[in-house]
Structure formats: structure tokens, C-alpha cells
Specification:
Elements: H1 2-14, H2 18-97, H3 105-112, H4 124-130, H5 134-137, H6 140-176, H7 188-197, H8 199-239
Helix pairs in contact: 2-3, 2-4, 2-8, 6-8
């Protein structure tokens, strides 16, 4: 093709058709410029496509991370509700009879000193997102929502977990162990006999424990609702990429 154009130019110059040559040369330059512009446009289109694909993958990863955290919150909420139900039964029975109910007593004693609860609010996905170019392109409203979930709502859940486990450790050290109730091999009748001697202290401990679980459950629900709303908005943003 290049040889073909070169022969045309040489023929025009040989035949002294300078004006036609100039027109042809300008036309050729224009064609070259158009070709370059088209190549740049294709390159930009490819870059934008790759950027959108990368953005879509990052948003998808964040949605998955949020889904997993929400599943953990819902599971913990269900567990918390079962704790409250069992605790309520014992406290209500005590209020009516001034006696310790044996139903689920061992379960409640074990939970009273369970200081293993925790929540990891950190996210490697979020860290990757905040260090990417996408973070600067996200709408401010979406950034605020993401910050609200990870840095506030989930952080609040973690703080409540820490308070609950702190109180469980306190109960273990100051009530269960001194009264021989930390032995997991005790049967219900043995536990009932020991608890009856310290019934008022036991009921008071359960009431404080229940209050902590109530607060924790409220934060589970609050964070879960926020995650669901954020996930919906992220899916909308992803569909518009």
C-alpha cells in the first residue's frame, strides 16, 4: 500500500502536476491523522472497557464481603435471641417463685462465662478498594455508606462484643470459679444446688448479662439493615458501569 502511494506521488512530480500533488499530499496527511485518531479512540475504548471490568470486579468482591459479614451477623443475632430466651425463662421463674429453674440452667451457666465472642470488622477487600483508582471515582454518597458500615456500624458491634466478653470474664473470675460453677462436668442438679446458695447473685449476674446481649442484638440488627441497603446501592452502581 505504501509503495502504491509512493508511485502516485512520483508520477505527479514527474508530470509537473505540483498543485495536484499538494492536494494529494494534504489528503494523505488527513488520512494519516484520521487513522491515528481512530487508533487512539480504539485504545481509549479498550482502556475504558478494562477499567470498567476492573471496577465491576472490585464492587462484586465488596458485595460478597458484605454478604458474608451479614450472614455472620444474622447467625450471631439468632444465637443472641436464644440466649435471651433462656435467660428470660430463668429470671421470670425466679420473679414468680423465688426459686431457680433447672430448665436450661447448665446452658445458661456455661454461656454466662463464655468470653470467646469476637467480630473481625476489618476487610482486605475494603482495603484494596480504598487503595484503587475506583475509590476516587465512586460517588460521595456511596463512599459515606461504605465508611458508615465498616468504620461505624461494624465497629460498634465489635465494641459491644468486647464489653460482653469482658463481663463474661468478670463472671467467670468473680462468680463461677469461686463458687465451683466453672466445672463443665457438673450435672444440672449439682449446678442447681450450688446456684441456690448464691441465687440473688446469680440472678443479678444474669440480668446484667441479658442487658449486654440486648444491646449486642440491637447492633446486629442495625448493622445488618445497613449492609442490606448498601449492597442494593452497590448492585445498582455495578449495573450502571
Amino acid at each position: 500500500m505504501i509503495k502504491f502511494f509512493r508511485k502516485i506521488r512520483q508520477k505527479m512530480l514527474t508530470e509537473n502536476k505540483f498543485s495536484k500533488y499538494m492536494i494529494y499530499a494534504v489528503g494523505e496527511i488527513i488520512l494519516v491523522v484520521i487513522g491515528i485518531l481512530i487508533a487512539l479512540q480504539i485504545n481509549n475504548w479498550n482502556s475504558n472497557r478494562l477499567e470498567k471490568e476492573s471496577d465491576s470486579q472490585l464492587i462484586g468482591a465488596l458485595i460478597t464481603d458484605l454478604k458474608l459479614k451479614n450472614e455472620e451477623l444474622i447467625s450471631d443475632l439468632e444465637y443472641g435471641n436464644s440466649l435471651i430466651k433462656n435467660t428470660d425463662n430463668i429470671i421470670e421463674f425466679w420473679a414468680k417463685t423465688k426459686k431457680i429453674d433447672t430448665l436450661n440452667l447448665k446452658y445458661s451457666i456455661n454461656r454466662l462465662g463464655d468470653d470467646r465472642g469476637f467480630l473481625n470488622e476489618k476487610s482486605s477487600v475494603l482495603e484494596g478498594l480504598t487503595n484503587s483508582g475506583l475509590w476516587k471515582r465512586l460517588p460521595d454518597s456511596l463512599i459515606r455508606e461504605i465508611d458508615d458500615i465498616y468504620r461505624f456500624k461494624l465497629a460498634a458491634v465489635k465494641a459491644s462484643f468486647e464489653k460482653t466478653t469482658e463481663y463474661a470474664s468478670h463472671c467467670k473470675l468473680n462468680f463461677l470459679i469461686p463458687n465451683g460453677l466453672a466445672d463443665t462436668n457438673l450435672n444440672t442438679l449439682e449446678i442447681h444446688s450450688l446456684v441456690t446458695e448464691k441465687n440473688i447473685e446469680f440472678i443479678s449476674s444474669l440480668e446484667v448479662f441479658r442487658g449486654g446481649i440486648y444491646l449486642l442484638n440491637n447492633r446486629f440488627e442495625y448493622a445488618s439493615k445497613g449492609i442490606i441497603k448498601l449492597s442494593e446501592n452497590l448492585n445498582i452502581y455495578k449495573s450502571e458501569l
